[in-house]
Amino acid sequence: MLLTQKLRIERTKKGHPALWERGGGHRNTGYAQIITDAEGKPKQPIYIRNRGELANREHALFIVEVGDYIIQADHHREDFDVEIYQIKEIHAEHALAVKVNDFSYDQWDKPPGKLKEAVKAACEKALCYHCREPHFYEWDDKND
Predict the structure, then answer these.
(1) Could you give the CA distance from residue 10 to residue 125 in angstroms, rounded to a whole number?
(2) H/E/C letters for each residue in 78-144?
(3) CA-to-CA distance for 138 and 120, rounded, in angstroms?
(4) Nearest CA to 126 among 24, 20, 21?
(5) I need a surface site. Which of 29, 43, 59, 141 has the fewest CB within 10 A?
(6) How do 4-8 and 29-36 pair as beta strands?
(7) How far apart are CA 28 and CA 76, in angstroms?
(8) Could you name the CATH architecture of 4-129?
C-alpha cells in the first residue's frame, strides 16, 4: 500500500505552486524539510528569507513540479527518522505526494541512491541549532 501525504502549498504571485525548505535544531531535537528536483539535485529558490523571525522557520521558497522530492528528517538525540516523498499531483491548495522511502531504527527501506546528498543536507539542517538559512539549494550569481 502506498502511503500518501497532502502537503499544503503556497502560490507565488504568478500562481506557481511552491513549498518551503524549513526547520532546524533545538537542544536535543530537530526537524527539517528539503526540496529537490526529480533527479535529487538542488533547485533554485525564488525567495530566501533574511529578516524577521528565522530560527527553525521557513528559509527558502521553491517552485515545485510533479516528480520533485520532499525529504523530511526528524531527530531526537540524533536518532533520525527520515521520510522521502515524491510529488505525484498538484492541486489548488495542496500537493499529493507518495512516500517512496524511509529511514528508521537505523535502517533504510532501500538505499537513498540519487537522494543521498539531499538526505545528508536534511539531517544537517535538523541538527543545525536555531537554523536561520537554507541548506540545500542552487543559487545563480546573477540573482544577487
Answers:
(1) 22
(2) CEEEEEEEEEEEECCCEEEEEEEEEEECCEECCCCHHHHHHHHHHHHHHHCECCCCCCCCCCCHHHC
(3) 16
(4) 24
(5) 141
(6) unpaired
(7) 6
(8) Sandwich (2.60)
Within 13 Å, how many C-alpha atoms sit on residue 80's CB side? 23
pLDDT of res. 59: 97
Per-domain boundaries in the chain: 4-129
> CB within 8 A of 16, min separation 6: which ones?
46, 63
Instruction: Compute the Cα dihedral for 105, 96, 93, 134 and give only its sign.
Output: positive
Output the CA–CA distances (angstroms, integers) from residue 42 to 28, 94, 114, 127, in the order listed.
28, 22, 11, 19
DSSP 73: E
pLDDT of residue 84: 97
The whole-number pLDDT of residue 141 equals 64
**What pLDDT was estimated at residue 139?**
81
Give the tens place of pLDDT for each residue, 93-124.
Answer: 999 999 999 999 999 999 999 999 999 999 99
Q: What is the pLDDT of residue 7?
A: 95
Regions of the chain short of the pLDDT cut 70: 1, 141-144
**H or E stretch at 33:** strand 29-36
